[in-house]
Amino acid sequence: MESNKPVLLFDMDDVLALFAEGFWDEVALRFPAVKIPHISVSNSWDLCTVESGLTREMMLEIFESPYFFRNLKVAPHAVEVMKQLEEANANAFICSAPYITNPTCASDKVEWVGEHFGPWWQKRVILTMDKTMVYGDYLFDDKPVITGLRKPSWQHVVWDRNYNRDSKGLRILNWESAYDFISTLPVPKRNGFRVRIAKFRAFLSSLL
Ligand SMILES: [Mg+2]
Known about the structure:
By secondary structure, the protein is of the alpha/beta class. It has helices at residues 19-30, 56-63, 78-87, 105-117, 119-122, 178-183, 189-207, and strands at 7-10, 91-96, 125-127, 138-141, 155-159, 171-172. It has a domain at 7-18 and 75-191: HAD superfamily/HAD-like (Rossmann fold, 3-Layer(aba) Sandwich). It binds magnesium ion.
């Protein structure tokens, strides 16, 4: 790992993958009586609280459908940016929480990354139920608040969506602006500390 580059973690659902769009497409197919909310007004993280008539049982039926996650569309311009990050040999990983009661979700996610972003990224998939346990400098994620067992090592970069507009901190608007945004992220201080320690060690050994 090149220490002068930040460690970047990218969420999948509604960051790399068009999860909400795929979900509501599936609702329209299976439950035609449900009123599909327009993406610009669905401002709730919980899909069942929108005024749609969607029940939790309907939602779970889709979440738990084999291959649902395998067939999601990729977010516009994500492929180009991920290619640029690969070419820059970024310290970047994909960090996603699989839906554990869906029997194919975890393998679907790994296959999906391979199909859309290729083997370099496929080897950088981290599936976890607790993102606070994953080391990184920046986590790009649309979830309004991310909690877990530990105080995260990463800083949450909120991927802009209607339902996270109240979340504080760094915010990224879309993939179109992502590469420039990422390029201007400060390198974490730990690197400077490590470099100073390495120089100090080199200085000590030169005295011996
Ligand atoms: Mg997400």
